[in-house]
């Protein structure tokens, strides 16, 4: 009798074990698996890229993502990419915050040359793309929306490659300002075009004027209020507690992002405003925007660019045809030529102007965000815009990082080769906190 009981329990255990195996296969991706997989794959891609002199590490991240994504082995599926969406949003929010910190409104106003160059470059880019698309038979509203999105430049490529090459100087700092202004102008023109797009899709008058105003004013308000709250709290940080600046800023970015997502506003625009306003509100006695986030930054860049590589729509190049090549080519050529024409205005050398024009070429973050807005509000128009934007991103995110690395070498600012800047506030005397060098911490 005792033996029968033991046998029964063993049989039950066997069935339980069988049920466990049946329930876990096929293996379901959870958050820790996705996060860990992205980190390991990103490091592998980065190590490979470091062995190729002309290739920046973010190209390695993207290459691994492409090989492991739906266009490659399929290890990173579309479902995994969707699940990683929140991580990507946090990464973009952090990068746009850092970009916004380079744009101090007061100092930019005192140096109008940079504003004039940015406005001229943005308008010429817009008109050139609009004319190209209308020649190829695209409707006026699709051409306007794509041209507005085409003004934007990728802050992630600029910030990461600059950090990787330890670039510091006139071209580096002024290009950060230009990219920030590019994205602001892109968002403003896109928002201004939305009423016409909504009208063409037979929306109500309340939606035509209400939606763009709600997204722009609301996004600005959230960014400004959060910046004021964070800088007010930062006044209480003392040298011994200044290490709390990283969780303080990350918390501000997360709240800015989360509130915008919850209220269906533009988190990209709001995080950029958050960085700009933090730079404006901060006190000289409590400088927080020059804080280095240290090794933690690599986590965000790996997530962003592994996902970007996995999300590349190579098939869109075939679907779009010749326009997939002409659109990014015209966009890049116009930005480059306008900056060459601004050589005297910026007191640049030809090499510096060339480098700046090249650094404006990559396009991704803001472009994808504005495309998602188009898709959510006007799916029919969004489908037409998506073909062009995805094709351009596939080209520009592939060639953009190597071009950026070449541009920094051309500028002569690698390892801090230049010191003058047009609109940048000198660094505060107090050393930055959270730096990758532990010897530089504030005691």
Structure commentary:
The N terminus and C terminus are likely disordered. Helix content is 72%, strand content 0%. The chain is globular. The protein has a single domain, classed as Na+/H+ antiporter like fold (Up-down Bundle). The protein contains 19 helices and no strands. It has 443 residues and is mostly helical.
Number of domains: 1
Q: What is the number of beta strands?
A: 0
Radius of gyration: 24 Å
Q: Helix tally?
A: 19
β-sheet strand percentage: under 5%
Low-confidence stretches: 1-8, 418-443
Structural class of the secondary elements? Answer: mainly alpha
CATH class term: Mainly Alpha
Mean pLDDT: 80
Q: Predict the CATH topology.
A: Na+/H+ antiporter like fold
Distance between the termini: 73 Å
Shape: globular
Give me the strand/helix succession: HHHHHHHHHHHHHHHHHHH
Proportion in helices:
over 70%
Task: Please outline the major beta sheet.
Answer: none
CATH level-two architecture: Up-down Bundle
List keywords for this structure.
single chain, 443 residues, mainly alpha, Na+/H+ antiporter like fold, 72% helix, disordered N terminus
């Amino acid at each position: 009798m005792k033996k029968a009981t033991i046998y029964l329990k063993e049989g039950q255990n066997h069935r339980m074990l069988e049920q466990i195996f049946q329930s876990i296969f096929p293996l379901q991706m959870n958050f820790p698996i996705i996060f860990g997989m992205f980190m390991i794959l990103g490091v592998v891609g980065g190590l490979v890229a470091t062995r190729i002199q002309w290739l920046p590490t973010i190209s390695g991240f993207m290459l691994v993502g492409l090989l492991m994504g739906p266009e490659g082995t399929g290890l990173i599926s579309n479902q995994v990419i969707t699940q990683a969406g929140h991580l990507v949003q946090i990464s973009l929010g952090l990068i746009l915050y850092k970009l916004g910190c380079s744009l101090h409104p007061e100092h930019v106003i005192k140096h109008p040359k940079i504003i004039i160059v940015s406005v001229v470059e943005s308008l010429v880019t817009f008109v050139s793309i609009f004319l190209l698309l209308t020649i190829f038979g695209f409707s006026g509203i699709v051409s306007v929306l794509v041209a507005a999105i085409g003004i934007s430049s990728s802050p992630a490529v600029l910030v990461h490659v600059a950090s990787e090459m330890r670039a510091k100087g006139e071209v580096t700092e002024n290009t950060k300002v230009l990219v920030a202004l590019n994205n602001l102008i892109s968002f403003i023109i896109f928002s201004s075009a939305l009423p016409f797009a909504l009208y063409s899709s037979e929306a109500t008058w309340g939606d035509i004027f209400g939606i763009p105003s709600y997204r722009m004013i609301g996004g600005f308000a959230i960014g400004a209020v959060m910046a004021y709250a964070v800088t007010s709290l930062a006044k209480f940080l003392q040298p011994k507690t200044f290490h709390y600046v990283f969780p303080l800023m990350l918390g501000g970015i997360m709240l800015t992002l989360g509130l915008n997502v919850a209220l269906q506003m533009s988190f990209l625009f709001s995080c950029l405003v958050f960085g700009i306003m933090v730079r404006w509100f901060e006190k000289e006695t409590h400088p927080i925007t020059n804080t280095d986030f240290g090794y933690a930054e690599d986590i965000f860049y790996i997530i962003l660019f592994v996902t970007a590589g996995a999300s590349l729509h190579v098939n869109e190049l075939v679907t779009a045809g010749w326009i997939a090549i002409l659109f990014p080519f015209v966009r890049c050529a116009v930005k480059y030529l306008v900056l060459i024409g601004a050589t005297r205005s910026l007191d640049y050398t030809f090499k510096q102007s060339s480098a700046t024009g090249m650094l404006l070429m990559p396009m991704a973050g803001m472009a994808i965000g504005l495309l998602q807005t188009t898709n959510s509000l006007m799916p029919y128009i969004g489908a037409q815009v998506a073909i062009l934007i995805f094709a351009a991103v596939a080209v520009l995110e592939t060639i953009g990082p190597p071009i950026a690395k070449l541009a920094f070498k051309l500028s002569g600012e690698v390892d801090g080769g230049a010191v003058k800047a047009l609109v940048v506030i000198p660094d505060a005397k107090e050393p930055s906190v959270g730096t990758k060098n532990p010897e530089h911490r504030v005691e």
